[in-house]
TrEMBL record:
It holds the Pfam family Wzy_C. It is a multi-pass membrane protein. Its main location: membrane. It is found in: Membrane. Keywords: Ligase, Membrane, Transmembrane, Transmembrane helix. The chain crosses the membrane at residues 20-38, 44-60, 67-83, 98-120, 132-153, 159-180, 192-210, 230-250, 257-275, 281-300, 307-326, 386-407, 419-435. Residues 481-512 are annotated as: Disordered. This is O-antigen ligase family protein. Residues 264-403 form the O-antigen ligase-related domain. The keyword Oxidoreductase does not apply. It comes from Candidatus Coproplasma excrementigallinarum. Residues 501-512 have a biased composition (Polar residues). Coiled coil: none annotated.
């Protein structure tokens, strides 16, 4: 079967399609589809196209790189017309026919993932080579066992725990075995992320321009809603994604200044979501990136210095002249300030629930004492802190599993990180930082981003751990990268890679 598939992949039309999926044009085209779907309510067609892309890639592509685009971007095709979130409150996703449709797509996706693993020998094996596997296995067990043995255990904890485990680690494992990583991977991922951030920013602009969220000169945060999430979700995803702009600004030989400016624009979008946690984490990243790119040797160092000064001066002048307008428009920031918005009580509630069942917790669906009545069709009330959430829902076992995971991730950090490894680390830290005050990492799509960046960080960071954690580090084998040819249409993986479907059928016959 492998021989026939590889022979088909050699056909001129198939090679052209594979080159398109491997190129930067595919994320742009997919981003346009996501926007059209979100504006026009085309989810049925949009996710059908996504499923076809996944199936085609898993069967014919030399590696799984094209799948990064839908992993990062698919959810943003959910429309305002069909969202179950208030104030729209559509019952579209409650329809039995729609649920059966998406269930069929999900089954197809799982089947083709399994086919990829079974039909094609993989170049790497998560269960033998991953340096994060102990923490991943422990956390998966903690998610599946959430609330077990608790007196008020509900069966809903099991499928939700499975959903958490899959969203955290499924794509880490899949891409560990199927993704070919070279010196161009970081730039390709960053480009996808920037396009994704652009999709979110355009959706945010649509909300501000057409949805009437400015009432009496102030933004009504309660109706700042996209099809796929509320204001905090929008701000959180933008804050996770906009660091990619600064990485591309550093790496680009020409036009890096445009990415640098775009990073500031996207941060402005974060602020306009009125998400205080996202704005805080985003501001820390912005300042750090501005300082780093003003110091580090790169084609845009001079531009970064000049632009930073201009932004500071213009910002001071704008605040002085437009202070009343800014204060009214962003009134939520000034009204709430450093108010905890009930988080301290939530955390205390979580600790009390933890004490009811300290080993495996009370489960994700154990009600809060003072529920904030989340209006969502999947997720239960949560504690807005990753440590409290794990303690309450998964007990001391869940917290210890997460600490093991954190230590393993820290062990892979380079002593002298490159710009690429910094990009991965900053993205992971942004997700972690926002999850100290919000629920981002326990929502499926931020967890999927976390899953992919775990892999990228581990595979890029090959030279050693932080000195503090050296005794815990297991030295990995040195990897040999395939030579790259500047301007080539694609970089061929090593000959031993079983998923290099573009090799000739004759070579495949000899190999088998």
């Amino acid at each position: 079967m492998r021989q026939k598939i590889r022979a088909v992949a050699q056909l001129p039309a198939m090679r052209a399609m594979l080159r398109f999926f491997d190129s930067f044009y595919f994320p742009i085209a997919y981003g346009v589809l996501a926007l059209l779907s979100s504006f026009l309510g085309l989810e049925i067609a949009y996710f059908a196209i996504t499923a076809v892309t996944v199936i085609f890639t898993c069967i014919f592509a030399r590696d799984s790189k094209p799948l990064l685009t839908p992993v990062f971007m698919a959810v943003y095709g959910v429309s305002w017309v069909h969202t179950p979130q208030p104030p729209f409150s559509s019952d579209f996703f409650y329809s039995k026919a729609v649920q059966i449709y998406f269930l069929c797509l999900g089954v197809l996706g799982i089947a083709v993932f399994l086919f990829r693993f079974i039909a094609f020998p993989q170049d790497r094996n998560f269960f033998k080579e991953s340096k994060l596997r102990l923490g991943i296995i422990l956390m998966t067990a903690a998610f599946l066992l959430n609330g077990v043995f608790y007196g008020n255990y509900t069966i809903y904890n099991l499928p939700f725990g499975l959903l958490m485990a899959l969203s955290f680690f499924l794509f880490y494992i899949f891409f560990f075995n199927t993704l070919y990583i070279d010196e161009n991977t970081g730039v390709h991922v960053a480009r996808i992320i920037v396009v994704t951030a652009g999709v979110i920013f355009i959706q945010l602009a649509k909300i501000y321009i057409f949805d009437g969220i400015i009432v009496d000169g102030s933004v009504n945060k309660d109706i700042l809603v996209a099809g796929w999430g509320m204001s905090n979700n929008i701000g959180g995803m933008l804050a996770m994604f906009f660091p990619a702009c600064f990485f591309l600004a550093y790496r680009a030989k020409r036009g890096g200044w445009a990415f640098y400016v775009l990073g500031f624009v996207f941060f402005g979008g974060v602020c306009l979501t009125l998400s205080r946690t996202s704005a805080l984490i985003g501001a820390i990243i912005l300042v750090a990136a501005a300082i780093y790119l003003s110091i580090a040797k790169s084609p845009i160092r001079r531009f970064a210095r000049i632009f930073n000064c201009v932004v500071i001066v213009c910002g001071i002048i704008a605040l002085a002249v437009l202070w009343d307008f800014v204060r009214d428009l962003l009134a939520v920031y000034f009204e709430r300030g450093f108010d905890d918005s009930g988080r301290l009580e939530l955390w205390a509630n979580g600790i009390r629930n933890f004490l009811k069942a300290p080993i495996f917790g009370t489960g994700f669906y154990e009600p809060l004492e003072n529920s904030y009545d989340i209006e969502n069709w999947v997720f239960p009330d949560m504690y807005h802190n990753i440590f409290v959430q794990l303690l309450s829902s998964c007990g001391i076992f869940g917290l210890l599993a997460y600490l093991v995971h954190i230590v393993e991730v820290a062990c892979g950090v380079k002593k002298r990180p490159t710009a690429e490894s910094l990009f991965y680390i900053v993205t992971l830290l942004s997700i972690f930082g926002m999850s100290l005050l919000d629920n981002h990492i326990f929502h499926v799509f931020p967890a999927m981003v976390y899953s992919v960046f775990l892999l990228l960080s581990e595979r890029e960071g090959e030279s050693g751990p932080l000195l503090l954690l050296r005794p815990l580090f297991v030295r990995r084998k040195k990897q040999v990268s395939a030579p790259s040819v500047e301007g080539a249409a694609e970089v061929q993986p090593p000959a031993r890679a079983g998923n290099a479907l573009s090799e000739s059928a004759a070579t495949d016959n000899n190999a088998n």
